[in-house]
Amino acid sequence: MGKHNPKGHFDAAEAEYIKASAAGRLDESASAFFARELSYVRSRVLEVQKAPLNAFAVFPVQTDVPAGAASAEQKIYDAIGVAKIISNYADDLPRADVLAQKIVTPVYTVGDSYGYNVVEIENAAFAGTNIDVYRARAARRAIDQRINTLAWKGDAAHGITGFLYNPNMTTVQLPADGTGSSTRLADKTPAQIIRDVNAVINAVELATNSVEVADTVLLSTAAYDHIAGTPRSDYSDITILDFLKKTHEGVRFMKVAELTGAGAGNKDILIAGKFDPDMVRLEIPERFRQLPVEKRNLEYVVDCLSRVIGVTVVVPIAFAKAVGA
User: Fold this and answer.
1) Are 251 and 245 spatial neighbours (Cβ–Cβ below 8 Å)?
2) Is residue 236 part of a domain?
3) What percent of the chain shows pLDDT beyond 90?
4) Domain range spanning residue 199?
5) Please, are residues 153 and 262 in contact by the beta-carbon 8 Å criterion?
6) Residue 4: its pLDDT value, please?
7) Three-state secondary structure call for residue 235
8) Contact between residue 284 and residue 62 where contact means Cβ atoms under 8 Å apart
9) How far apart are CA 168 and CA 159, in angstroms?
10) Which residue, of 68, 154, 244, 293, has the greatest Cβ tally within 10 A?
11) Chain-centroid distance, C-alpha 259
């Protein structure tokens, strides 16, 4: 059988394979039609370069690990070094990697499939209409959604720790001084909200002795909407979010639905950190691949797969988390 090229098109040998496998199922014209249509479907699916899912927008995506690798060795830093002023003859320079730990992480395969039955293909060929691309797009979307879930929440059954549950992040305890002794931002005054968000942002700098500074703040849907729609004060024409952006120039504030109810007791989570590839990365050796078409009974099926490691938090103390926001 021929090899399909990276754009998803079939070469002549694979087209002949489709014709041969269609013997007794599709006539020659229908099988030729299907070969052309499936090439078109595959190309259209691969046009979608980036799905609008939060993991792909928040985490730097790395594809350095070869798709065929069974595992990847990673170095995780529990702390980072701090430089200091030294004398000309100093022999006690601080080390930047003294608490590094090597971890071997498996590369997991995520897969699904889509297909068309004989009647659908014959009907489309007879009518001269395209077969729909929605099933193929749904297959890609399902894989991206699974990667997104693995990135944020992991998979306990397979021993994958999601970003939200990394145990080595700095934890910030929010004061329970909101309405009804609540810790939720939506239950607090603007001044209290600003104090709490600042505390989480500043926790990164404190934990790293000012070596690293947070460049991103992630909020749940409710928390983000509240600070984006609430004035800084009764006498202000800017919102709490506007004020925070001005205070922390260059820091991006993002609404992340996956933080809603993700904490203990179904509480929302607030996270600040430096989302740089040296600090954290979403490792995907292979984002999406469509295998050669297969005939199974009265259906023609295309299996799809992805190879994924998940989110690697290289420097956990470059991130701070507060549950109950």
Assistant:
1) yes
2) yes
3) 56
4) 164-279+317-323
5) yes
6) 41
7) coil
8) yes
9) 16
10) 293
11) 13
Mean local confidence (pLDDT), 62-88: 64
d(CA 315, CA 287): 24
Point out the least confidently predicted range of 11-15, 131-135, 296-300, 310-314: 11-15
CA pair distance 325, 227, nearest whole angstrom? 12
CATH number of residue 232's parent domain: 3.30.2320.10
The pLDDT score that the predictor gives to residue 225 is 98
| DSSP output for 155-221 | EGGGTEEPGGG-TTSEE-PPP--STTS---GGGS-HHHHHHHHHHHHHHHHHHTTTS----EEEE-H
Residue 252 lies in a domain: yes
Determine the Cα–Cα distance for residues 325 and 313; give it in Å rounded to an integer.
22
Query: Does residue 63 sit within a domain?
Result: no
Number of domains in the chain: 1
Site of tokens 């190879």:
307
Place of tokens 């060795």: 73
Q: For residue 309, which phi and psi values (nearest 5 degrees)? A: -105, -40
Task: Indicate the pTM of the whole model.
Answer: 0.81
Does a structural domain hold residue 154?
no
Beta-ladder partners of 319 = 273
